Automatic annotation (TrEMBL):
Spans traversing the lipid bilayer: 51-72, 105-127, 148-178, 190-211, 223-244, 317-340
Protein name (record): ABC-2 type transport system permease protein
Alphabetized UniProt keyword annotations: Membrane, Transmembrane, Transmembrane helix
Domain of life: Bacteria
GO cellular component, one term: plasma membrane
Any GO MF annotation of the entry: ABC-type transporter activity
Phylogenetic classification of the source organism: Bacteria, Pseudomonadati, Bacteroidota, Chitinophagia, Chitinophagales
Pfam family, one: ABC2_membrane_2
Length: 347
């Protein structure tokens, strides 16, 4: 990896510079080359050139192509289903329609998004420290917190560009194949899906950066982050079911009100997992007919018309999930900031 000090060459050296005719002034060059911007560009370049990002990029693109192929193969059957209130949302069906051979793309991203965030941040700080470049970098007249913010922001920029490009590719491919113009509601729902996916990856990125600040070895931070991901993905649901079944009686002997309370308790506990929050939010955004994320009684369903909701109403439904992901991301990044600012880096 190229030393980050190279990117600051002649920016703070203070050596006299011979100005030639037609050259911009030194103040113009300095204004265009802010230290924070230099660090962000350096981190973006390092991520793009790294093999782990290239491997994950290929994996995500192949997953996207596979999910789009399955969706296009079942698109005619999906839009001709008279019992489906979402059948008219053609471009949303490209992200949700499936025949069971492959999960939809947003289900895939609940797994691959976490791996992408972890891979971009598990060695953000400890690798610089072990390579001896952290001291040299902070010896320059830059703020220490700018380094941590540049690590986080550069990875988010790459993730945002990646998923926005895939979404535009999906829209363009759908326009070429079907010849149907995308509606404004579908475009805003897809845009909200991209923002939500970036936020979900950002949570795992902030957690990985937190572990890279906490642990000195990159392998330790990587294994810890993967362990947390595996716990919430596989074991957390099992633990919740065991605890709830040991506390509550058999649902077969409950009244209707007790069953609703029982299901709400299970859902509230499951929503402590980031993947559950992401799945609930994306399902509501990509399926406009979803009106609730919890159990409904027959009295609440009486008189309900199966029609799609507006974009605003769907966002209001998923706002608690979005707030939960934002809060978790902010807490992880704040802890990483606190520990990094108090960490002695010279030893």
């Amino acid at each position: 990896m190229e030393s980050p000090v190279v990117y600051f060459k002649d920016l703070f050296s203070g050596r006299p510079r011979i100005k030639k005719a037609g050259d911009p002034s030194v103040s113009d060059i300095t204004s265009r080359q802010r230290p924070f911007g230099v660090m962000v560009r350096k981190e973006v370049a390092d991520h793009i050139r790294s093999w782990r990002f290239i491997v994950l990029l290929i994996l995500i693109v192949l997953t996207f192509v596979g999910a789009m192929y399955v969706s296009l193969s079942n698109l005619k059957a999906a839009v001709s289903n008279e019992n489906d209130p979402d059948r008219l949302f053609l471009y949303l069906k490209l992200l949700t329609a499936t025949d069971g051979s492959l999960p939809p793309f947003h289900i895939f991203m609940s797994f691959l998004g976490a791996l992408l965030g972890i891979s971009l941040g598990f060695d953000a700080i400890n690798a610089e420290r072990n390579n001896g470049t952290l001291i040299r970098l902070l010896a320059q007249p830059v703020y220490r917190d700018n380094l941590l913010l540049a690590k986080f922001l550069s990875a988010l920029v790459i993730v945002a560009v990646l998923f926005l490009s895939l979404s535009l590719l999906m829209i363009g491919g759908g326009l070429i194949i079907t010849g149907v113009r995308i509606e404004g509601a579908e475009f805003f729902r897809i845009l909200a899906f991209v923002i939500l996916t970036v936020l979900y990856v950002g949570f795992w990125l902030s957690l990985a950066i937190l572990l890279s600040v906490k642990f000195r070895q990159a392998t330790t931070s990587a294994l810890t982050a993967i362990g947390i991901w595996l716990f919430f993905t596989i074991f957390y649901r099992i633990v919740v079911n065991m605890i709830v079944r040991s506390v509550f009686p058999d649902p077969n002997f409950m009244t209707q009100g007790d069953i609703v309370f029982y299901n709400n308790v299970i859902l509230d506990l499951l929503r402590l997992a980031p993947s559950q929050l992401y799945t609930d939010a994306t399902t509501t955004l990509l399926m406009p007919s979803v009106r609730s994320l919890g159990p409904l009684t027959m009295e609440q369903m009486a008189g309900a018309i199966p029609s799609p909701l507006s974009v605003r109403e769907s966002i209001l439904i998923v706002w608690p999930q979005v707030s939960g992901l934002l809060a978790a991301t902010a807490v992880c990044f704040a802890l990483a900031y606190f520990w990094f600012m108090r960490r002695e880096i010279r030893t």
